[in-house]
Structure formats: C-alpha cells, structure tokens
Amino acid sequence: xxxxxxxxxxxxxxxxxxxxxxxxxxxxxxxxxxxxxxxxxxxxxxxxxxxxxxxxxxxxxxxxxxxxxxxxxxxxxxxxxxxxxxxxxxxxxxxxxxxxxxxxxxxxxxxxxxxxxxxxxxxxxxxxxxxxxxxxxxxxxxxxxxxxxxxxxxxxxxxxxxxxxxxxxxxxxxxxxxxxxxxxxxxxxxxxxxxxxxxxxxxxxxxxxxxxxxxxxxxxxxxxxxxxxxxxxxxxxxxxxxxxxxxxxxxxxxxxxxxxxxxxxxxxxxxxxxxxxxxxxxxxxxxxxxxxxxxxxxxxxxxxxxxx
Length: 308
Ligand code: CAA
Ligand code: NAD
Description:
This protein is α/β, with parallel strands linked by helices. It has helices spanning 2-17, 31-42, 54-75, 80-91, 101-105, 118-131, 147-151, 185-197, 213-230, 235-246, 252-259, 261-274, 285-292, and strands at residues 23-27, 46-50, 94-97, 109-112, 137-140, 160-165, 174-179, 201-206.
C-alpha cells in the first residue's frame, strides 16, 4: 500500500516537473516582446502578443515577419517556396491582439515586457492574477526592478520569477532566471527546460539589483556617458576604444542607442532614487535632454547617433 502511495507521489512529482508549456502570453510588443514572441513561435509555442494598440501591434508583426523571413531564406539557402512555407507555418503560431483577457485564461506561461515602470507592471500583474489559472507561471522581463516588488501584488509567489532576455532576443543566447525565496523548485525547473527549448542558455540569479548582466553592464554604460559629459573624450572615440581595445561588439553609445535611451533612463532613475548617494547612478543631463527630444535611440531613428 505504502509502495503504491509512493509511486503515485513520484508520478505526481514527475508530472509537475515536466509541466508542459504550450500557451505563452507575452505582454508588450516593443523591442523585447516582439523578439521574445519570435523565438517562441520558432520553437513551436502558441503565442499571444498583447500591446496597447493596433498600430504598435502592426509594427511588432512586421518586425517578426521580417526577421522570420530572413531566417527562412537563410535556412533554405534562397529557396523562396520552402522559405515561404516555413514563414507561414511559424507565423501561424502567433496572435497579435489588444487585450490579454481571453489569452490569460488559458496561458501556461506569461512573460511581461512592458515599459520599465513599477506601477505599470504591478497594475498589470494584479489584473492578470485575477484572470490566469492558479498554475500559470508569471514572469517579468524587467531590466532593473526587484522581482519581489512586482510579485507582491499577486497570490502566486511560488509561480513567479524573472525571465530576463537580451536584446536582440533572436541572437543573444542568454536568459537570466531570477528566483525569489518563494519561487518553487518546480517553477525554476520548468523555466530552465523552457529556456533550453528556445535554444538559449539560462543562468540563475537571486533577486539582486540588475541581476548578473545589468549589475555589471549598466554602471559601465553610465560611466561612459559621464566621461562624455565631462569632455574627457568624444563619444566616437569612446566607442572605438571599447570595440578595438576591449573587443566589445558595440561601443557604449552604440549599445545605449540599441537598448533605448528611454529604457536606460527608467533604469537609471530607479536606481538613483534607491541609491541616491551612489555617483554611478547620478542623473545624466544629456540622457534627459535626448529623451525629452524623443531621441530614444535606434528604435526612434536617433539617439546619441542618427539612424536611417
Ligand atoms: N534583431 C534580429 N536579428 C538581428 C538584429 C536585430 N535587432 N540585429 C542584428 N541581427 C542579426 C543579423 O541579422 C545577423 O544574423 P546572421 O548572422 O544570421 O546573418 C546577426 O545578428 C549579426 O548581425 P550583423 O552581422 O549585422 O552585425 P554584428 O555582427 O555587428 O552583430 C549584434 C550585431 C549581435 C547586435 C552585435 O553588435 C552585439 O552583440 N551587440 C551587443 C548587444 C548586447 O550587448 N546586447 C545586450 C544589451 S543589454 C540587455 O539586453 C539587457 C537589458 O536589460 C538592457
Ligand atoms: P519598448 O519601449 O520597445 O516596448 C515596450 C512596449 O510595451 C511598448 O510597445 C508599449 O506600448 C507596451 N506597453 C506599455 N504598457 C503596456 C501595457 N500596460 N499593456 C500592454 N503593453 C504595454 O521597450 P523594451 O525595450 O521592449 O522593454 C520592455 C521591458 O524589457 C522593460 O522592462 C525593459 O527594461 C526590459 N528589457 C529591455 C531591454 C532592452 O535592451 N531594450 C533588454 C532586456 C530587458
């Protein structure tokens, strides 16, 4: 009898460990959300991508379609018939829609990639918590906000984690899995398997400021801006120096433009508020000026540099 119970328990545990993710709901279809949607569709998940209006969703769809088409042509070395079939097949995994209400109810995994603002994220998750089944795993792609501050508005701290992708998502191999004390082992295991299924590499990190990559990367970027503001060197020379002298694929100003200056400013403002005496997070006049002028980097056509 005891043997039987143990067997049932084991089977149950196995089942939990291999909780199948099929339906993925991604909220926010900007730079990150559209990339995350793309890699999920390629891996064969049913993806719903939600953003605030149709115009934004059209842009997201265009971006994904363009990227998958390019991939397909490469995969089938220019055979456009086969490439078109591949493309059509992958696009069928994607739904672009303005409301998350229906998709949330049948989602296995939710990935939030909206603006880097704690109130907006909390408001969204409080609502999702009402809609999604109890076992749905909630994750945030936040760059800099504490996961526990976002998770706190929900009643599923066992099923809550950070899932931090990198830009450009289709190319960057890393995903950071950020866990809370309350995150269950099953959730971490499911996310680890899921990241692997996207053909990406995961690392785990506690819920500490900036996790691994941004804890090291953002201060470096801010220091570059401070050097430039002091007039120590031109932005072009700082970029050349880091590419040619340190082997970085992009210089710090190119990378800031690539990340988005609004996103960088949200990260910096948040950390400045939290650590007001840390000179690494001092407010930057040039960053404020560019964001005020709507020069948000590559995504808006201009930032530190101009883009066609
Ligand atoms: N979306 C999709 N694919 C892209 C892309 C994009 N935005 N930009 C480039 N690619 C693809 C290209 O199509 C190309 O693919 P193939 O090799 O299959 O042809 C490949 O990337 C290489 O592109 P290029 O040859 O044009 O250019 P490159 O060799 O200079 O590489 C890069 C481009 C991969 C972006 C490289 O410059 C790089 O690694 N830059 C640094 C990126 C980085 O540090 N990202 C992290 C940002 S921080 C972050 O994400 C965290 C946060 O919270 C803020
Ligand atoms: P983005 O500005 O390109 O896109 C954000 C999108 O979210 C916009 O399309 C906006 O319309 C949408 N949005 C805002 N509020 C929404 C809501 N309530 N419901 C639905 N959609 C909403 O920004 P991004 O670069 O994609 O960043 C998104 C998140 O990912 C942020 O938390 C950011 O810190 C993080 N992140 C950014 C990068 C990067 O390099 N840009 C890298 C890793 C993580």
